[in-house]
Amino acid sequence: MLGKIKSMDWFSYIWFIYLPYSAIEYLPIKNIKDGFWLLMIVFFIIIYILVNEVTKYRIVTIPLELLITGAFAFFSFNFYLIIFPAWQVSFILARYPRKYYQFFAISYYLILVISFLRLQSVYPNVWRQEAMMGMIFPVVSPIIAYAFAFSIYKQRQLNQTNRRLEAIIRRGERERIARDLHDTLGQSFSMITIKTELAKKLLLKNPAKVVGELEDIEKTSRQNLKLVRNIVNDLHKQSLSEVLLNQAKNLSEANILFFSKGEEQAGEWPTTIQDRFGAAIVEAVSNILRHAKAHEVQLIFSYEGDFYQVEIIDDGNGGNFDENSSNGIKGMRARMLEGKGNLQIYHNKRGTHVLMTQLRVNSYD
């Protein structure tokens, strides 16, 4: 229960501070009509929360919210409530393909125009009154809200892309170091190995102590050569920044918004950890593209006790996907088990939540 409360988007409820301006017109209750409109305000609040929290049914709740607020505008000439969907729905649809916002905007302005025409027929002189200045805000709200939300999401995407590119540039320096290690130390250790093997053959007739010393040199040089090769291999593995850059491009091409949190700290995780998580993320994104029909994907990188943790959250219908029959998910789970971690998948009305963990390197037995 506490987790659900923490996950709520509380920013969307700031607009409730303006709700009294709508309710005050019907207080104190003088007749049945006032009671009806107050009851409709309560119904509106419920629908507003459902739009915000239950993404699965937005195809029903968004039109219903628009109809309720439109009823206030048309029958009661209350234009305060219709401002709520103007901002809330515009912010939501900024994450979706533009055609959804266009359909909403057409419906919104159609309701507004019809309500204005009825207002004009009942109160012919209303346009001359100073109160009509308050009509400007409902008219411009959807445009301002959508433009503002769209710019925020695009800026967030741009900032994340820039951070990934910076990480890849730093990685380029690591690869240069890897080449230097291979070309210098690797060659030197190879020569030491060859010379010690030759010396051992030449000195077979000499005292055994010399042979023993040479064998130690050979063994040490081989170990160092193996160590250098391991370092080079680790440096050539794909980092999380590279994985996310590629997957963000794939999601963008499918009109799916992608955001991440904690990505910078994850870039400092050990290479082996990044490699396992990276492969699992690629598979998870692939499943989202094939099955989820999502509009938004979020990745969260964090620490939880002795574990590295990655969460992949989407707003699709992954609950219809059978994870037990998926070789990809079995592979993801196997990779996490290699890192002494685990893979868990949760489904609810808001989408799918994948939780992956690996034991932190300094916590290995």
From TrEMBL:
PANTHER family the UniProt entry points to: NITRATE/NITRITE SENSOR PROTEIN NARX-RELATED, SENSOR HISTIDINE KINASE DESK
GO molecular function: phosphorelay sensor kinase activity; protein dimerization activity
InterPro entries, alphabetized: HATPase_C_sf (IPR036890), Sensor_HK_TwoCompSys (IPR050482), Sig_transdc_His_kin_sub3_dim/P (IPR011712)
GO CC annotation terms, alphabetical: membrane
Transmembrane segments: 12-29, 35-54, 66-88, 100-119, 131-153
Lineage, uppermost ranks: Bacteria, Bacillati, Bacillota, Bacilli, Lactobacillales
Organism domain of life: Bacteria
Protein name: histidine kinase
Chain ranges of the Signal transduction histidine kinase subgroup 3 dimerisation and phosphoacceptor domain: 173-239
Biological source species: Ligilactobacillus ubinensis
Pfam hit, one: HisKA_3
Enzyme class, first EC level, given as a word: transferase
EC number: 2.7.13.3
The entry's keywords: Kinase, Membrane, Transferase, Transmembrane, Transmembrane helix, Two-component regulatory system
Recorded catalytic activity of this chain's protein: ATP + protein L-histidine = ADP + protein N-phospho-L-histidine
